[in-house]
Amino acid sequence: MSTRGQRILLWTAPPAVALFVLAYFLFPPFSPPLSPTLTPDEVAVFFRDHTTGILGVVILCNLIAGSLVPLFAVTAVQISRTGTSSSVFTYAYVICVGAGTTAFILADYCWGVAAFRPDRDPQLISLLNDMAWFFFIAPVGTIVVQNLCFALSIYLDSRPDPIFARWVAHFNVAVSALLIPSAFSILHTSGPLAWDGAVSFTLRLIVFAGYIVVMFLVLLRTVQRQGSEQAVLA
Fold this sequence. Notes:
By secondary structure, the chain is an all-alpha fold. The chain has one domain (4-226). It has helices spanning 4-10, 13-26, 40-49, 51-64, 69-81, 88-116, 122-137, 141-155, 166-179, 198-233. Helix 2 packs antiparallel against helix 4, helix 6 runs antiparallel to helix 8 and helix 8 (141-155) packs antiparallel against helix 9 (166-179). The termini are close together.
């Protein structure tokens, strides 16, 4: 199996991350994050005052929504190489990636629809904003299952020379644990668990960003090792 395709897809991750960072700093609802305590009228005023900026970032996020999928695709390929005697972990991982990406796209378009007609009823703009935040923050279940499937494939790897070091599995479990509190953002309008809180928003984004960086480096080394092994066998 050639590793050229994997290497090409892996190196799409750095520019994708750069675009996401740009979108984060350009997106008005994130700087700082809109509070769940705002009234519908206050939310509507915000969207009227920042229509151009919101729609611009919505377009950008639409174009880059799936830009991290190649990184996850390489992960799935490497999961399939582990000696678990089952491909179920690979299938579950891929399905979870698809579901998680869909939630991000739904959040993006809820913000876009809210900004598309800023003169509509403030109650509707506020509803769309609420939906966007919940789609963006709360659906961590797919990410948790995705990471746990990855971790289990490492723990059960029966190869004499495992594909991944066991610390990678521990890391994925830890990331899952840190993301779970965001699921409770739907119960809070203030405090660390609210969608704009230190746990649900700030910690979640920091953990996810750190996860992407670590996994990029891990996969880069793993794919390089796979290529070296194949060169020796050839």
